[in-house]
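Q: What would this chain look like folded?
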Amino acid sequence: MPKPVRADPAAAPHPGARPLTEAARVWDPVVRLFHWGLVASFATAWFSANQAEALHMWAGYAAAGLIATRIVWGVVGTRHARFAGFIRHPRTVLAYLRDILRGTEARHIGHNPAGGAMVVALMLGVAALGVTGWMMYTDTWYGDDALAEVHGLIADGMVLLILLHLAGVALASLRHRENLVRAMVTGTKRPPEKGDIG
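A: My prediction, written as structure tokens:
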């Protein structure tokens, strides 16, 4: 009768280790609420412009408040929420964009370099909208047509950035076989694989 095989204790998984098949937790609730709150507030402000002044103004204040919250969370938040985890040097962003053109870009668990740059651009755009929108209601700038024009141009620029953002999300979802919109709802992505970053 053969002897029973003894399990090697060293080969046993660590009690706290995450199974390889478990989804990667990436976006915490603050990041997800910020993202979808900003979507809602920008859309509300966009569609209420020149239609419902009070709604437009309060949507702008909500967006500005979300940006302020995200700045704080970008410093003290969870790993993938911190700016240090996804803001990259412009050379790194350009190299990543070249890799996209070649079809050789790596999958990132958090924001990829291009996505991180887009987050910064969108936040700066919303902040600029908030500042110029607020200025338009001050005694100094009230009724200033030039400032209103600048505010409108920034809003148009934001729409272009959003379209680029959506295109990037769609491309990354296809290339890396995961639904990034769903990931921003659930907070999880598929498990990391060999060659993935972050």
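The radius of gyration is 22 Å.
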